[in-house]
Amino acid sequence: MISQIRLIGFDMIEIMAGQRFSTRRKKSGSGLVWGGLAIGFIVVMIKWGVPWFVNILAGPAAPKGGGVNTAADIVPPQIPVLFPIPEATNSANLKIEGFTEGNVEVNLFKNDELFMNSKTDDKGAFKIDLKLSDGENKIQVKARDAAGNESQSVVKTVMYDKKASEVTIDAPKDGDEIFGKNNQTIAFSGKVTKVDSVVTVNGNFARVDVDGKFSVMVKLSEGDNNVVIKATDKAGNIVEKTVKVKLTF
């Protein structure tokens, strides 16, 4: 009996629900259509739109093959750096040392001509013995890697000069005799042909002007005096002259 009552109750509920649903469907039929379109749009966006948007933000995908960088090497070696070398020398042999990238070819140029090629060690160091030419020598080192990239050092200029400066003594003359204690200190003056020379007179430095002229005061001893004038040029060439004078009180 109770079961029958429940069944009758369920039937009445279904009838009432059906009537309400029918009424709502009439009122909101268009709403269901728009709802269906909205759901379809969401599905499409999730499946195709979102991945497309993510790809736009991430940029183009890397090519297949493990992401290995296959780009050609276009980076030149480190610019060669040369250790200090003299501006002038009287020796024909000069050692050129420096460093750049490790295990690369280095080419030494003298006066724009290839003189010798060598190779750097693991740390990038190199040493090359250079034979200088008389006069001015323009020196440059170029580094070249296996890919053909090249870099070059600054140009250094070395003057090879084995001829010493000429020295002329104007006063006093060799063999002069000086009289009087008041003349015990006298000026030695003269001229050198190389204005970059360092001049000493009995060990005392004499200033050399732009014309190569020099003068320095020297104190003589009573009797014979050997005064040594020494001139050393930038290349290291040395010339000496001795002037003999006599001081008589």
Q: What attributes characterize this protein structure?
A:
249 residues; alpha+beta; Immunoglobulin-like; 3 domains; 6-stranded mixed β-sheet; 17 strands
What does it look like?
The protein folds into three domains: 32-58; 81-160, Immunoglobulins (Immunoglobulin-like), CATH 2.60.40.10; 167-248, Immunoglobulins (Immunoglobulin-like). The protein has one helix and 17 strands. The termini are far apart. 23% of the residues lie in helices and 40% in strands. The chain is elongated and about 135 Å long. The strands form four sheets. Strands 2, 4, 5, 7, 8 and 9 form a six-stranded mixed β-sheet that branches. The protein has one helix at residues 2-58; strands spanning 81-82, 88-89, 93-99, 105-110, 113-119, 125-131, 135-144, 150-152, 156-160, 167-171, 177-179, 185-192, 198-201, 204-206, 213-219, 223-232, 238-248. The longest helix is centred in the N-terminal third of the chain and has 57 residues, at 2-58. The chain is an alpha+beta fold.
